[in-house]
Amino acid sequence: MRTGTRSPAHQWFIESLEDVVARMAARRPEEDSWWTGLARRLAIDTTDAYYRAIMSRALDAGRALQLDSSVFAGGPVVLACGSLGPGGSERQVVTTADALAGRMPDLGVQIVCMFLSPPPQDFYRPLVRPGITVSPLPALDTTTPALAALAQSLPMELRDVARYVAFFHATKPSIVHAWLDEINVKAGLAALIAGVPRVVLSGRSVAPSNFRLFRPYMASGYRRLLADPRVTALNNSAAGVADYRIWLDQPEANIQVLRNGLELDAFRRVDVPAARARLRARLGIAPDAQVVGTISRLYEEKRPLLWIQAAAALAQVHASCHFVYVGDGILAGDAKALAASLGVAPRCHFVGYQADAAEWAAGFDVFMLTSRKEGLPNVLIEAQALGVPVVTTDAGGASETLVPGVTGWVVDSGDAIALAERLATVLDDDAWRARARTDAPAFVASRFSIDRMLAETLRVYGVPVPEGVPA
Q1: Per-residue pLDDT tens for 345-369?
Q2: CB 60 within 8 A of CB 188
Q3: Is this model's pTM higher than 0.85 or not?
Q4: Which of 26, 321, 426, 455 stands the most exposed, by the fewest C-beta atoms within 10 Å?
Q5: CA distance 64 to 150
């Protein structure tokens, strides 16, 4: 190899290193001084001006790829997401696709995912309605000169934009509805390049700078997208809208609240007494034992260690109570070790991902969520739909999912003792829980119905709401 040249593997390694350094330096510049210093030494630019230039360069390079607007008329609605893995956002993608296809089959709904393998990236795929096309995002076609030129104009972290452009060229969607920050920016930018007439971006939590998946291009990407009249941004909570506006330093940014929708019939069909009995039989615990449970990934933002600490504190005053954690993640080992060290392991059951999660939730006496950051947690809504009261930390839009003192409680503090005390009051008040079993499903039906969500989504799409769907 001649001096000054790089093999493809060497180039990939260098760009991957630069991506990591840029991401870490941009995420928390006031805290990550070591990463910021390293970025300077390596001459890696993480400034907003740099990424604004990147967005402009991509749009310029993509001019040859813009299709005439007429080719998109009557095209499908494409929902773009990272995967169909076991998360609340992924479930809402499937719910939205199902509602659109079920009530308006002429829309021709499609789903495109960055990843559909390995498992559990396809966790919710079996729930997708027959007739909805689910596709993995295809590899980049480097034989098309204009696509190759677009990809080469972008840093490695944004080259997926060219793959989305190719997909939109093939499908010619009338609407692209992207979900979650990385896909919002990549698919959104690609939709503008391709000439898609309407683009919808769904944020599902607070701003991405709060999370490990943050990328330094996201703020510039959102600002560029929101400047285009074809683009509408959504968030599923008022707390999320406010946080995005602060993060983007755009207090008047066009970001609308569109709360999650829940297909209530599936929850009404759950036989709650039978589910309670099955859960206790599965775990070999007493039929009358009280159970505090959750359905949550074991990742830092969900604070599973705080959940275990609260369980251990409650166990001190409720000697027969058991604790069930449905879900998995990188902190599973730490959570199990902490449960053992606090002496609560014999009563703390880690059951991993479960396809019948609603059956498990129906068996809980109370649902506890301990997140540090959230959007509008589906699990809190679903638990209440089953008549299970909830206790949650005040994270993101969590407080928007319940009626305080009626269907659940919000604990301001991330303190395990405060959580345990609130859980104890719920478990000790049989009459309150009996009322919540009736009040919680009624509240969910009034605020989070699938018809309400569908009508609001169609208005954003600019599509008439069909008869029978409340407008």
Answers
A1: 999 999 999 989 999 999 999 999 9
A2: no
A3: no
A4: 455
A5: 10
